[in-house]
Write a structure and sequence with these properties.
mainly alpha, 11 helices, 279 residues
């Protein structure tokens, strides 16, 4: 089994013995996994509860956020499975399967959120046409099918030499390009004012565009923080043909911390941040 391939998504997989001993980096990884699970699970559950009860922006307008939070809960549970897999080795298949939630699920729903904001600002007529819930359900259904396919790919191909690195890199490049396109398009729309706009209308529209721009900026930045370190480290590992566990731990920590961006952003927008702002 190629360690550089497995380590692109599972940095702790560099320990090859079936009776692995827990070293310093392993202990740090367990701590980070535990933090992700203990703080991420209640945070995303709280966001889901706000959306379902209508306390936030409502189910329709926040449907992509709802699905993203469900996906993040799956990632949090995967962190719990990772911790258990240090002692229960039969969970290895499950933890590799759930990696697809990270590699495809999270960036897919982040892209849907960015595209939705892009349509609302740049193509408002098209946005109103496809605003009903059924179109969001169709998009999310397709996203979940793709995510499931990615989970199966992770489960069956992580032992293939170098394949997952290229597979994840191409996904990242596609999703990141879409978000950058939305970012630039909204920025251009923000700098332009429609003809015949009065002062107050112009201020309100610019405020909406600015909020959409900030949302896309934060989403794109969080995606870069999550995936750029892993991508660089993955290719570096292939080139030098040597696993450097410290580098993988740095990339892994960036991936965990950036996962808290969206729930905190949503809670801040809805005025329900409370003590969760400490995250």
């Amino acid at each position: 089994m190629n360690n550089s391939t497995v380590n692109f998504t599972t940095p702790e997989a560099s320990t090859n013995s079936t009776t692995q001993s827990i070293g310093l980096l392993d202990s740090l990884e367990i701590c980070v996994y535990s933090i992700s699970f203990l703080f991420g699970l209640p945070t995303h559950s709280y966001v889901i509860w706000l959306i379902i009860t209508g306390t936030g922006n409502g189910v329709v307008s926040a449907f992509f956020n709802l699905n993203l939070s469900v996906c993040e809960i799956g990632i949090c549970l995967n962190c719990f499975v990772y911790v258990l897999s240090y002692w229960i080795f039969s969970l290895s298949t499950l933890k590799v399967f759930l990696v697809g939630l990270t590699t495809s699920g999270r960036p897919l729903f982040q892209c849907l959120i960015c595209v939705e904001r892009y349509l609302a600002v740049v193509h408002p007529v098209t946005f109103l046409k496809y605003k009903p819930l059924r179109y969001r359900v169709i998009c999310c259904t397709v996203a979940w099918i793709i995510t499931l396919g990615s989970c199966l790919v992770c489960m069956y191909t992580l032992s293939e030499e170098n394949w997952p690195v290229w597979f994840f890199f191409l996904q990242f490049l596609l999703f990141f390009s879409i978000q950058l396109f939305c970012l630039v398009a909204v920025l251009r729309a923000l700098k332009q004012s429609g003809p015949g706009e009065r002062g107050r209308e112009r201020v309100e529209e610019n405020h909406m565009k600015r909020r959409a721009f900030y949302l896309i900026v934060i989403t794109t930045a969080s995606m870069a923080i999550i995936y750029v370190p892993y991508t660089i480290i993955g290719f570096f590992t292939i080139m030098v043909k040597q696993v450097i566990n410290l580098l993988w731990f740095v990339g892994f920590t960036c991936y965990i911390l950036a996962g808290f961006v969206h729930p905190v952003l949503y809670l801040q927008r809805t005025g329900k941040l409370l003590c969760l702002s400490l995250l």
